[in-house]
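Appendix B. One record, verbatim.
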Amino acid sequence: MKTTSHLFTSSHLGFRTWLESDLEAFSQMNVDPEIMKYFEKPLSIEESQAMMDRMNRMFDDKGYCYFAVDLLATGELLGMIGLGWKTFEAEFTPCVDIGWRIRKEFWNKGFTTEGAKRCLEYAKEIGLQEVLSLASSDNKASIRVMQKIGMDYWLDFDHPDLKKSKHLNPCSLYRIKL
C-alpha cells in the first residue's frame, strides 16, 4: 500500500492530485471500451498523461479538478471523481461540473456516489455556489448518481464538442445549488 497525502477523504476514499505512478492504471482504464462507452473515444497513454497534467494545472489554478481517488483500505487507484471547469459554448457555460470515471471492478459498490457527495461538500467548502453535471442521456448509471447526490434535472442539449459522436447526444444536464 502506497502512502499518499490526501487533500480530503470520505469514509472509503482519498482524494488527491495526480502522480506519475497513476499513469499505468489510469491509462488502462481509459482504453477499456466499456468504461469509455459514453466518451468520444478511448484515450492513448499520451492522452491519459496529458489529462493528468491538465488536472494538476487546474487544481493549481482553481483549487479543484477531477481528482485521483484512492480506495483508503488498499491504496489502489479507484479512478477519478471531482470538479471541472467547462467552457464549451452553451447557455450555461462557463460552469463548474462534477464528473467521474472509475475502474470497472469498483462499479456498483456505492463508491461513485460516496465520492461525488464528498466532492460536493468540498465544492461548498471552497465557496462554490452551484455545480452542474452532464452525461449522455443514454448513460443511465451516471444520471442515477446525479440524482442520488441531490442534483435536479435541468435540460437536455446537444453538446457542441460531440457533433461527430452523434450517439452521445443529446446530453442531460443536472444542477445543484450549494
